[in-house]
Design goal:
The complex is a heterodimer of chains A (215) and B (226). Chain A has a single domain, classed as Glutaconate Coenzyme A-transferase. Helices cover 17% and strands 27% of the residues of chain A. Chain A is built from five helices and 13 strands. Chain A has a ten-stranded mixed sheet with strand order 4-3-2-1-5-8-10-11-12-13. In chain A, helix 3 packs across helix 4. Chain A is globular and about 50 Å long. In chain A, 47% of the residues are buried. Chain B has 226 residues and is of the alpha/beta class. Helices cover 21% and strands 25% of the residues of chain B. In chain B, strands 4-3-2-1-8-10-12 form a seven-stranded parallel sheet. In chain B, strand 6 and strand 7 form a beta hairpin. In chain B, helix 5 packs across helix 6. The relative contact order of chain B is 0.20. The chains are: A alpha/beta (215), B alpha/beta (226). At the A-B interface, helix 3 and helix 4 of A face helix 4, helix 5 and helix 6 of B.
């Protein structure tokens, strides 16, 4: 049986399946923003955007664009009923103050102690940019990372210790990859589920950090 | 009579000095005071420190100000974005200084400046490259970094409507950094789509009260550009 690896949309849908009604959620740029498309509209989840939008809805129809309404990725969005606007200091008070139930961020690497590296690939990065990642990583009640399990050259992104510059220490509680879902625990990475066609040993082969089965 | 209105953008720029720290509102193009930035370009002040979330795109607005070598330093959370090639070329050539600040810390440093808080501890960036050299402390079981207030000499703000007292409303996500910056500068200059009669703005709708505003100029435009 071939490995049924998830594509970007599949990863986003897998994350969405775990978000319950009533949560207030920030989605980072990249795969995370796709998560919103997979939360059914009858499940009330409120999406926050760092530029001061609560209750963000999907992209507008081409003839219904409001040029004053964008998300963190600076693309046009809509506002759902019940939505509101705040200024930047309040928006990050919501983030830093622990008022969001969940933040989902993309990552380059996640370490087995929950360290995350997602903003810069080198200490000598050309024109580095951080945005709100460091605030989001420490502020939300829980941080989930979503990323490919390995790099394009096959190196594991789940590592013992991050090699890229850190975004936050010990912040990630769960990782969603194209191959598996893993919890970050005191023991390290504990496998929650693996895609069909791959077993625990096969997943471990593709992972630099030591994996554990649920207790 | 209190009257913050000025006749035009040129009058609004009066007195901005070389070496000033200028807070510039906006998140990407939305809420960015493009006409005031053009006014600053015309006005001629040099050796500026610009505080803004982004570093401008193409060759207009902030990017033009930088291309004219008028910006010594930019304090920014996300300087690199599609079309920010002027900044990238200057940075690569070592001709502009960058202070990279996490976005929430950037907002809070200006909020603190406006609120009379000289410094604060935050968990953001602890243990990362962006906290190197900064004092740290464990407070309430969390490791934190000391950050200082970031006041401006000047704030350039875009709002939606204003009255002669300088009371302001904002349009949708155009609010972003603007109210925070309006409170954080010695000289707060605001462009609005239109100036309305005193009393016309519903008091509950005023986001920035006039106490924070020094100059107000009406510059109607069709929407965010750039």
């Amino acid at each position: 049986m071939t490995i049924q690896a998830r594509d970007r949309v599949g990863m986003a849908a897998r994350v969405a399946a775990d978000i319950p009604e009533g949560w207030w959620v920030n989605l980072g740029i990249g795969i995370p923003v796709l998560v919103a498309d997979h939360v059914p509209l009858d499940r009330e989840v409120v999406f926050h955007s760092e530029n001061g939008v609560l209750g963000m809805g999907p992209a507008p129809a081409p003839d219904k664009v409001n040029p004053w309404l964008i998300n963190a990725g600076k693309t046009h969005v809509t506002l759902r009923q019940g939505g509101s606007y705040v200024h930047h200091a309040d928006s990050f008070s919501i983030i830093r103050g622990g008022h969001l139930d969940l933040c989902v961020l993309g990552a380059f690497e996640v370490a087995q102690n929950g360290d995350i590296a997602n903003w810069s690939r080198s200490d000598n990065d050309f024109a580095p940019a951080v945005g709100g990642a460091m605030d989001l990583a420490v502020g939300a009640k829980r941080l989930w990372a979503v990323m490919e399990h390995t790099t394009k050259t096959g190196e594991s992104r789940l590592v013992k210790t991050c090699t890229y510059p850190l975004t936050a220490l010990g912040a990630v509680s769960r990782v969603y990859t194209n191959l598996a879902v893993l919890d970050v625990t005191e023991r390290g990475f504990v496998v929650v589920d693996i895609v069909p066609g791959l077993d625990f040993a096969g997943l471990q082969e593709r992972t630099a950090a030591t994996l554990h089965l649920p207790a | 009579m209190i009257d913050k209105r000025v006749a035009n953008v040129a009058a609004a720029m009066d007195g901005i000095t070389d070496g000033a720290t200028v807070l510039v509102g906006g998140f990407g193009a939305v809420g960015q005071p493009n006409q005031l930035i053009d006014g600053l370009i015309e006005q001629g002040a040099r050796d500026l420190t610009i505080v803004a979330n982004n570093s401008g795109v193409a060759e207009f607005g902030l990017a033009k100000l930088m291309k004219l070598r008028r910006v010594r330093k930019i304090i920014c959370s996300f300087p690199r974005s599609a079309g920010s090639f002027v900044f990238e070329e200057l940075y690569r050539a070592g001709e502009i200084e960058l202070e990279l600040v996490p976005q929430g810390t950037l907002a809070e440093r200006m909020r603190a400046a406006g609120a009379g808080i000289p410094a604060f501890y935050t968990p953001t960036a602890f243990g990362t490259k962006l906290a190197e050299g900064k004092p740290t402390a464990e407070i309430g079981g969390r490791n934190c970094v000391l950050e200082y207030a970031l006041p401006g000499d000047v704030a350039l703000v875009e709002a939606w409507e204003g009255d002669r007292w300088g009371n302001l409303t904002y349009k949708d996500s155009g609010r972003n950094f603007n109210p925070v910056m309006a409170a954080a500068a010695k000289l707060t200059i605001v462009q609005v789509q239109r100036i309305v009669e005193l009393g016309a703005l519903p008091p509950e709708a005023v986001v920035t009260p006039g106490v924070y505003v020094d100059r107000l100029v009406a510059v109607p435009h069709e929407g965010p550009q750039g």
